[in-house]
Amino acid sequence: NLGNRFQEIFKKVRGNGVLNESNIKDALKEVRLALLEADVNYKVVKEFVGKVKEKAVGETVLKGINPAQQFIKIVHDELVELLGGTNARLTKANKPPTIIMLAGLQGAGKTTFAAKLAKFLKKKGEKPYLVGADIYRPAAMKQLQVLGESIGVGVFTIEGSQDAVKICEEGITKSKEEHATYIILDTAGRLHIDENLMDELKEIKKMARPQEILLVVDAMTGQDAVNVASKFNETLNIDGVVVTKLDGDARGGAALSIKAVSGKPIKFIGVGEKLEDIELFHPDRLASRILGMGDVVSLVEKAQEAIDEDEAKRLEEKIKKQEFDLEDFLKQLQNIKKLGPISNLLKMIPGANQIGDLAPAEKEMKKVEAIIQSMTKEERSKPKIINASRKKRIAKGSGTNVHEVNKLLQQFEQMKKMMKMFSGGSMPKIPGMKFP
Ligand code: GDP
Ligand code: MG
């Protein structure tokens, strides 16, 4: 299992202070193997390992945790990213009912999921209605009817009908008459993807115009599930994926590559045959489950918070005493960078998309960082000693020019003056952003 595998890997990560290419080499190799073994698509694996490496190299190990734990956190965060980052939720119609169309191969778990979802929605106070349009599988309609009865949810089908589109159409009409808030269309599957199946699904989509088309895939089928997701998405333009049977000995590889390969997020998972065995998909939970190390992740998060608090207090003291220097400034810049590209940060602020191209600001930040990094420790703490020849040296070292070094020093002095005004109060939130 992937979790145990990682446990082993991280025992090998040694070294104190900083994660570097050599002390994470073996760990990365094992991450790669473990993912391939879990049946994750090889292209996805390659990209993933590259990203983990990029994040890990140069990371300082936090107080109170070991390099292995820090590495786990990095892998965890990348896993979350790979799984789609945020939690993807169902789209709701502006005016009820919301129509949800299920699709997928035979045996994937569509009918079971239809009932699970109906139960899930009913618990939330909604009024779901089920429509059974599997006209091929013997007893398919009976199956849905039995499930519907067991949860007290209405089911519409036309026994013996050979027209799936018509069943859906009448089912929608009936559901509306019953004032359903959600209509779940359970469709037929085939053993393999074929033209006929796709044509039928396209027809149903055209008629029903669902808010959500959810593709149901079986985690046990590994890479096949990923291919199925891509194919269905190409023809149907699905809205999300449901991964079933994650309770079995499925290696999780399907869940890991679906978003990366098909571009569509997982919205629900099935974790058992019973109708309660449905979960909203939480990328962070699955990442922790795959790693089998949720506690380590929260430990590292706490360590990070502690460091940030220590830092903030220390900086506040320094500002009060007017000792804030370029070294502190560099640290602040690097902290900001840890949060990700500025453009991503601003995406979270409504209206910020109107600010325009942020590439120049990001480039400027990098330049400022390079300039400070080219200074000696003494120069950083006492910028006054930076004379003309030192400026020349710093400009050369940072690939900038003396004019730019001057500009930075002037702006830093201005910032310090501003901080004087703030002193007694707290830090300006993002001092780096005050720079050009
Ligand atoms: P359909 O052909 O896509 O409609 O698939 P069904 O809903 O009929 O399910 C096929 C089989 O998979 C049934 O035996 C279900 O009990 C089983 N099944 C569905 N979802 C899950 C799940 O999340 N976990 C497990 N273990 N079995 C499941
Ligand atoms: Mg079925």
Give structural notes:
- The chain has three domains: 2-86 and 291-297, SRP54, nucleotide-binding domain (Four Helix Bundle (Hemerythrin (Met), subunit A)); 98-281, Rossmann fold; 322-434, Signal recognition particle, SRP54 subunit, M-domain (434 Repressor (Amino-terminal Domain), Orthogonal Bundle).
- It has 436 residues and is of the alpha/beta class.
- Strands 3-2-4-1-5-6-7-8 form an eight-stranded mixed β-sheet, with helices on both faces.
- Strand 6, helix 10 (253-262) and strand 7 form a beta-alpha-beta unit.
- It contains 18 helices and eight strands.
- Bound molecules: guanosine-5'-diphosphate and magnesium ion.
- Magnesium ion is lined by residues 110-111, 134, 140.
Largest sheet: 8 strands, mixed
User: Strand arrangement, largest sheet?
Assistant: 3-2-4-1-5-6-7-8
Class inferred from helices and paired strands: alpha/beta
Question: What do we call the CATH topology of the largest domain?
Answer: Rossmann fold
Total number of helical segments? 18
Task: Tell me the fraction of residues in β-strands, as a range.
Answer: 5-15%
How is the quaternary structure best described? single chain
Small molecules (ligands, ions, cofactors) in the structure:
guanosine-5'-diphosphate, magnesium ion
Helix content: 55-70%
Number of strands: 8
Helix-strand topology string: HHHHEHEHEHEHEHEHEEHHHHHHHH
N- to C-terminal separation? 50 Å
In CATH terms, what is the architecture of the largest domain? 3-Layer(aba) Sandwich
Number of domains: 3
Question: What's the average pLDDT?
Answer: 84
Organism: Hypnocyclicus thermotrophus
InterPro entries: AAA+_ATPase, P-loop_NTPase, Signal_recog_part_SRP54_M_sf, Signal_recog_particl_SRP54_hlx, Signal_recog_particle_SRP54_M, SRP, SRP54, SRP54_GTPase_dom
Keywords: Coiled coil, Cytoplasm, GTP-binding, Hydrolase, Nucleotide-binding, Ribonucleoprotein, RNA-binding, Signal recognition particle
GO molecular function: 7S RNA binding; GTP binding; GTPase activity
